[in-house]
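TICKET: design request
STATUS: open
ATTACHED STRUCTURE:
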């Protein structure tokens, strides 16, 4: 049976409700229960890991028997597995739901299969309603599921001659105000922001996302990686979120831990040692390189060893965008998938 106007409106509403949930280890999901005549009976959304899923949240607002013959409109396929909560497909069947309209298939190997379970219990199931909008809402979660870790952006600022700092270690500020404002906007889009102990000790960064002096509404969780202790009076201790400290150089362990905490996107802000280590470990999905028209010379290169011994091993990039920012230039790039060396004839 085709999706009707009341169900389409309910999906709009369910998408709106889903966005109220937190970004984290679980996807944001919304649900609306409609009576057979299209009246909204109940609404629900997922409030975060360990709490009821959206469908169950909505059903919990109804008296026993009230959902009999009703339609559940959900942004994600009802799950089919028992985690901290029971399978939603079973909860819907038990409540007497007659029809389910959902947007996006559940990609999870364990949680998927809910639609089949509903159908085999005689529930009418319609998939794909507003799937693009539902996908956009949880794109970060889907990507982190696919990768098995957060999506990682490695960012640095450099002089035109490829230096990340002057010879005395000072690097504030290589770039101008437009580039720095751009960095802050992008920090606010990330769930976490990482630096090495070297940067904490050299620059004492706040690791907040700011517009001028004002904090932006979303703040990334600050992450410090390395063995040396962070001073008790370091600015990172005044961050709105408690910082996470990882006394290790094993970046795979760090990103696995962040993934388990529900971090979907990680912004790595250097310095050169940490940026190089992420690249060497193959843990860079996207690069943001802010290039300033200034020369610094000296030995403080933007990257150190990334495991390239000869030109054949060069880490080729694909440029997604060149963005002029005042007198600076931002290169947005990702690792090229065909890693073949360029052949442009004799030099
Ligand atoms: N231009 C820019 O964008 C930018 C950005 C940030 C910093 N900087 C500049 O960079 C300089 C600091 O550079 P840095 O390279 O020392 O900073 P860093 O990369 O932030 O910190 C390096 C330290 O991180 C620890 N670490 C954590 N994981 C590691 C791993 N997998 N491999 C190796 N080390 C790891 C090590 O310290 P432990 O011994 O404590 O384990 C290492 O010495 C300063 O001058 C700062 O101003 C520039």
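STATUS: resolved
RESOLUTION: sequence designed for all positions
ATTACHED SEQUENCE:
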């Amino acid at each position: 049976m085709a999706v009707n106007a009341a169900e389409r409106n309910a999906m709009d509403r369910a998408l709106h409700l889903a966005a109220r949930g937190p970004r984290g280890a679980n996807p944001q999901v919304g649900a609306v229960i409609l009576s057979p005549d299209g009246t909204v009976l109940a609404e629900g959304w997922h409030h975060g890991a360990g709490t009821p899923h959206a469908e169950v949240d909505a059903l919990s607002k109804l008296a026993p028997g009230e959902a009999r013959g009703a339609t559940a409109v959900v942004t994600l396929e009802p799950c089919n597995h028992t985690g901290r909560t029971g399978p939603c497909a079973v909860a819907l069947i038990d409540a007497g739901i007659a029809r389910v309209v959902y947007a996006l298939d559940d990609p999870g190997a364990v949680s998927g299969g809910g639609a089949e379970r509903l159908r085999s219990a005689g529930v009418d199931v319609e998939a794909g309603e507003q799937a693009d909008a539902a996908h956009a809402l949880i794109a970060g979660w889907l990507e982190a599921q696919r990768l098995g870790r957060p999506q990682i952006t490695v960012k640095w600022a450099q002089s035109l001659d490829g230096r990340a700092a002057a010879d005395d270690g000072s690097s504030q500020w290589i770039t101008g105000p437009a580039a720095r404002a751009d960095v802050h906007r992008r920090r606010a889009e990330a769930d976490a922001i990482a630096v090495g102990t070297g940067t904490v000790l050299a620059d004492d960064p706040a690791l907040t996302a700011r517009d001028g002096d004002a904090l932006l509404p979303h703040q990334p969780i600050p992450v410090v990686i390395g063995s040396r202790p962070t001073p008790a009076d370091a600015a990172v201790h005044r961050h709105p979120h408690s910082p996470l400290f990882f006394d290790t150089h094993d970046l795979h362990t760090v990103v696995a831990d962040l993934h388990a905490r529900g971090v979907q996107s990680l912004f790595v802000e250097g310095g050169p040692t940490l940026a190089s280590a992420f690249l060497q470990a193959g843990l860079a999905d996207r690069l943001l390189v802010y290039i300033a028209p200034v020369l610094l010379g000296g030995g403080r290169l933007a990257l150190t060893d990334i495991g390239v011994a000869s030109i054949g091993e060069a880490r080729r990039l694909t440029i997604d965008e060149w963005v002029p920012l005042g007198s600076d230039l931002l290169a947005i790039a990702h690792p090229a998938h065909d890693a073949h060396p360029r052949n442009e004839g004799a030099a």
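CLOSING REMARK: The pocket of NAP is lined by residues 156-157, 164-165, 169, 171, 174, 195-199, 202-203, 225-228, 249, 251, 269-274, 277 (CB under 6 Å). Residues 5-143 form a domain with the Cytidine Deaminase; domain 2 fold (CATH 3.40.140.10).
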